[in-house]
Amino acid sequence: MFFHPMDFLILLALGISIWAQFRVKGNFKKWSDVPTRTGLSGFETARRLLDSNGLHHVPVEPVRGMLSDHYDPVQRVVRLSEAVYYGRSIASVSVASHEVGHAIQHKESYKALVFRHKLFPVTNLASGIAPFLFIGGMLLQQLSLIGIGIIFFSVAVAFQLITLPVEFDASNRARNLMISDGILYNEEEKGVKKVLNAAALTYVAGALMALFELIKFIMIFVQGSQSEEG
Fold first, then answer.
1. Does the predicted TM-score (pTM) go above 0.70?
2. Which of 67, 104, 161, 171 has a CA that sits 20 to 30 A from residue 112's CA?
3. What's the rounded mean pLDDT across residues 166-195?
4. So which residues are the catalytic ones?
């Protein structure tokens, strides 16, 4: 009852996601062993780029956890994992610059970022309710519950999809910022691309998996509706 042909694509996307996670960790570890020519740490890189873009008021704080780096748009603070904050490697400055890219997006009211921020609280609610609606609808054979679940889950999928341009833009900004500020040398660009592209792949895999799951339940809903009409 729970198996569906779309599950093959969902499992494929899951496999890509797992592979992407290993690739992120592998690339980060590899390029964490390669020091930058400037000798700047992740903190120094972030602080320098924030200041040069008029974001003197945005603090940079260390946070525990592996690859827990993020920009907090509510408190307006760049938080870097300790390995990135204190590290003086290509991996450290790449991740730090990426998070600064988000801070600059916020400053410039980058449309995709603004939309994602507005969608975030609704997404939390919708993604928590949707699975129960799907399971309940399939167990009770109630298409109405599945239909409502599709509506809720569509919000979560939209959030995943809108995240893609936000992350890709932040990575592009990171590379451009490092070049324009003299933080990145030509021979170091390869390492930066490896680190940032690996991270971007995780978002692509996550969006694909969510999209395939949505298509699966839409197909179930349509097939069920046609059966009732028949």
1. yes
2. 67
3. 91
4. 99
